[in-house]
Amino acid sequence: MKSKDSLLAGAGDNTRLAHLGHDPMSYHGFVNPPVVHASTVLFPNVETMENRGQKYTYGTRGTPTTDALCEAFNALEGAAGTVLVPSGLAAITVPFLAYLSAGDHALIVDSVYTPCRHFCDTMLKRLGVEVEYYDPEIGAGIETLIRPNTRLVHTEAPASNTFEMQDIRAIAEAAHRHDCVVTMDNTWATPLFFRPLDFGVDVSIHATTKYPSGHSDILMGSVSANEKHWPRLHETQITLGICGAPDDSYQILRGLRTMGVRLAHHQASALEIACWLEGRSEVARVLHPALESFPGHAVWKRDFKGASGIFSFILKAGDAAEGRKKAHAFLNTLSLFGLGYSWGGYESLALKVNLSDRTIRKAPPEGPVIRLQIGLEDVADLIKDLEAGFAAAASA
């Protein structure tokens, strides 16, 4: 395996995805790792049991199947270690619980994933953590918000639903001058298009439910940490008793093999549709970082290697009532685009974004925000579906 590891270190993304995380010769040559179901693990003697002197000791602490997926993520992220958790939200909450204590202050980007905000405003506050939200485009200016008791800065780029970009390196450098942990939700880009730890982030978070799975049938999250912060993260996972299931890990590992190919299709299709939407008179703005018209485009172009398949647009409307009516008509007419949460699967999805929880970056005034997940369908067919939606909105 040493020669293979050396070869993979300089290989392309798709080559790495096809081979990371498993050595077939370790399991009689079978290409895919076995699914090991486990709770109890037996020990050869009392001494080994007392000293935990073997690799596997109990199902919650890992199996060959979950380890294969963790090893793949470690390689993709450049991480010291990865933990698997049952959902993308758990991938955010577990590191928060790992690094924050009563009396601490946490800085959370205002454009954060909504369930994360709910966790911060409820459980974290009940635990005595003070939460403050900041503008996603603050950059190095975040240093003015850091207090003596600030312990964690949470980032997400692009932002949920409105896709503001963040200067991750500048934020991380400012935070580290005050010994803060920097976490990042990198679900949109995946490690193929952005590697947070390379930009100073300490803990990289992913809803592997999305692109690593790719088929809308698995719930899981991953958390990958650098060497300094890995021990605390791992200890917290064990203390909380939270772990990823072997069957789900197998499915995510299987999904990883084709993630690069799928992302290329998602990216190309989404950009084509985003450009088409920019030419529609019904659209006020398209919120996609890879478009030159987008305010954060320069940051995206500088730091990211690609764009995934999810973005938003603002539907023109005179007032809130008209906007609601047009958005409902548009969405209810769609056929190929399903109405559903999540994204990253093979099917296209659409929804009307709720931005009522924002405290700084509030909803745009031009009209309702419609989020699109562009799947693996043919672009021409998706455009026909959107055209039908616009016709219905115009008649509403």
From TrEMBL:
Give the enzyme's EC designation. 4.4.1.8
- Tell whether RNA-binding is among the UniProt keywords: no
Sites where N6-(pyridoxal phosphate)lysine occurs are at K210
Q: Which GO terms describe its molecular function?
A: cysteine-S-conjugate beta-lyase activity; pyridoxal phosphate binding
InterPro entries, from UniProt? Cys/Met-Metab_PyrdxlP-dep_enz, Cys_b_lyase_bac, PyrdxlP-dep_Trfase, PyrdxlP-dep_Trfase_major, PyrdxlP-dep_Trfase_small
Key words of the record = Lyase, Pyridoxal phosphate
Which cofactors must be present for this protein to function?
pyridoxal 5'-phosphate
Give the reaction(s) catalysed: L,L-cystathionine + H2O = L-homocysteine + pyruvate + NH4(+)
A GO biological process held by the record: transsulfuration
Family under the similarity heading:
Belongs to the trans-sulfuration enzymes family.
Q: What is this protein called?
A: Cystathionine beta-lyase
Question: What is the native source organism of this protein?
Answer: Rhizobium straminoryzae
